[in-house]
From TrEMBL:
This is Cytochrome c biogenesis protein ResB. The keyword DNA damage does not apply. The chain crosses the membrane at residues 52-70, 106-128, 198-217, 475-494. It comes from Streptomyces peucetius. It holds the Pfam family ResB. It is a multi-pass membrane protein. Residues 1-10 have a biased composition (Basic and acidic residues). Keywords: Cytochrome c-type biogenesis, Membrane, Transmembrane, Transmembrane helix. Residues 50-530 form the ResB-like domain. Residues 1-30, 538-557 are annotated as: Disordered. The keyword Cytoplasm does not apply.
Length: 557
């Protein structure tokens, strides 16, 4: 509908939407300046316009791309350090642009806050306008209904009041908001379109708030637990932990759990040999001093304890190793978790003996053992060691033993699964070669010069790594996303339209019925719906029969 037609229709063609009306009177080039208040008002109008809100939303989407492609300090600081070492040229640029901390950067926060303000400034006036439209009645019919794109007319012998009463009852039955205004019935339908539009934008605000809550109050940590061991939800128990800037340790939900067993089964035959079939951890858990409960945690099926979710991430093996010193004293006898490096769970790691070890002369020393484990040993006659299958069918453990300083006294943090041999010396065999040995369960490796022994016990335990996550905004984000989709569907597929029915007595005394429909945009649905309404009303007010003219007596035939 053109601007001219909209003006001709007057109130009837206005307010089919709650979209803000653009300013029609602009200052001419030679007119007076806006002044400070004028410029502030102009800036506010631009900021709260839907066009700017969409631009900010697009910029927010673009800004999140580097957060997905570039390692983030909030996710994995180790990857960030590795990236910096590999890219000497890009690192200073990325640091100045805060690309290693995208979601807490100044520019991302500015876009986020501006979008938040823009949406609120856009929604509030539209909501009040929409409430006003709901409280008001549909506008009176235009003077000339025949000027509307969809219209029809006929003559009937029914009285005008009867036609209007029938039209009013029919439109209300079709769920139109209708009332009689003068010589016509005015009706309107499709308010859910604007309601859906507002719900969509309110949902965006809910999602933004949920995102802010998740960033500020979240906590997330990882823990590797061997069968038989447990975990208590305190900061000291985590292997790694990160949280939002407003998170407090007091907000950690008090619970604990024990890994009773891990069950992993794999396809043994066919092209999918080695594919996991069962992957679950049986745990016993309790909240605070409450009773113990049994649960099974599976991939994508976390355990939920008062909003804190415990996800099962990875699985591996922990061969039980016993280490004796030069005097035969047991220094360590425990399962040693090793990290998998391939699909067949070939695993590597380090065993560090920092205290309690003495050589045969009673001198204190430290041991560092590089370990390589395979659950199903292959390559026995080829001089290589690899795993043929992820299941525990033929385990083997290869060890390389060092002694000296592990470097833990320097105060610098170390990776427990990596061995720093810069200040250590590897044991040598009788031929002067570096001492390494492959062990099967129950076998023992003797260290030279009576330095002790290492035994691979007849037991291999399994471990599982868990992610303990507390995201306070997840429920709000999901609710907002569902509401946004629902509102968007309503705003796209529901059409706001108006219908008028005028019934007046003609000059010849016969009632003239006029019907017209108007939608916000040109659509075939309005003429179709109007035709259906006209057919229904026509059945109650049929077309009047034309009078038959009788020729006068004596006239020529």
């Amino acid at each position: 509908m053109s601007k001219t037609e909209e003006r001709d229709l007057g109130e009837a063609g206005a307010q089919l939407s709650t979209a803000p009306v653009e300013e029609r009177h602009r200052e001419s080039a030679g007119g007076p300046t806006l002044g400070v208040i004028g410029w502030l008002r102009w800036f506010w109008r631009q900021l709260t316009s839907m066009r700017v809100a969409l631009i900010l939303l697009f910029l927010l989407s673009l800004g999140s791309i580097p957060g997905s492609l570039i390692p983030q300090n909030s996710v994995d600081p180790m990857k960030v350090e590795a990236f910096k070492k590999q890219h000497d040229v890009l690192t200073p640029v990325y640091e100045k642009l805060q690309l290693f901390d995208v979601y807490s950067s100044v520019w991302f926060s500015a876009i986020y806050i501006l979008l938040f303000i823009s949406l609120i400034g856009c929604i509030v006036p539209r909501s009040w306008q929409f409430v006003g439209q709901l409280r008001s009645r549909p506008p009176r019919a235009p003077k000339r209904l025949t000027r509307l794109p969809a219209h029809t007319t006929w003559r009937t012998e029914r009285e005008p009041e009867q036609v209007r009463e029938a039209a009013l009852a029919m439109l209300k039955k079709r769920r139109f908001r209708a009332h009689t205004a003068g010589d016509a019935v005015a009706a309107e339908k499709g308010y859910l379109r604007e309601a859906g539009n507002l719900v969509f934008h309110v949902s965006l605000i809910v999602i933004l708030v949920a995102f802010a809550m998740g960033v500020l109050f979240k906590s997330e940590g990882g823990k590797l637990v061997v069968e038989g061991d447990g975990f208590s939800n305190t900061l000291t128990q985590y292997d790694d932990f990160k949280s939002g800037s407003l998170f407090s340790p007091d907000e950690l939900v008090p619970f604990s759990f024990t890994l009773d067993s891990f069950t992993g089964t794999y396809e043994k035959n066919g092209p999918q040999r080695g594919t996991p079939r069962t992957f679950e951890a049986a745990v016993t858990w309790s909240k605070g001093d409450g009773p113990e409960k049994k649960s099974v945690i599976e991939v994508n099926k976390p355990l939920n304890v008062d909003g804190t979710k415990i996800y099962l991430l990875e699985h591996g093996y922990a061969p039980v190793v016993t280490i004796r010193d030069g005097r035969g004293k047991v220094v360590i006898s425990e399962p040693v978790p090793l990290l998998p490096i391939d699909a067949n769970v070939s695993s590597t790691g380090a065993i560090k003996v920092m205290d309690g070890y003495r050589d045969k002369n009673g001198k204190k020393d430290q041991l560092g053992i590089a370990a390589f484990f395979v659950p199903t040993y292959g390559g026995e006659n080829s001089g290589q060691m690899f795993s043929q299958f992820p299941g525990l069918e033929y385990p083997a453990l290869s060890l390389g033993v060092y002694h000296g300083s592990l470097g833990v006294d320097s105060g610098l943090p170390q990776n427990v699964y990596q061995l720093d041999t810069s200040k250590m010396e590897q044991f040598k065999d009788a031929d002067g070669n570096r001492l390494t040995k492959r062990l099967l369960p129950g076998e023992t490796m003797k260290l030279p010069d009576g330095a002790g022994s290492i035994t691979f016990e007849n037991e291999v335990k399994e471990w599982a790594s868990f992610q303990i996550s507390q995201q306070p905004g997840n429920g709000w984000a999901l609710t907002g996303a569902v509401a946004a989709i629902t509102g968007l569907v309503g705003s796209l597929f529901i059409q706001r339209r108006r219908v008028w029915v005028r019934a007046v007595r003609g000059a010849d005394g016969v009632t003239v019925v006029e019907m017209a429909g108007l939608g916000r945009a040109e659509s075939a649905k309005v003429p179709e719906e109007l035709a259906d309404l006209a057919a229904t009303l026509h059945a109650q007010a049929p077309t009047a029969s034309e009078p038959v003219e009788v020729p006068a007596e004596g006239s020529e035939k």
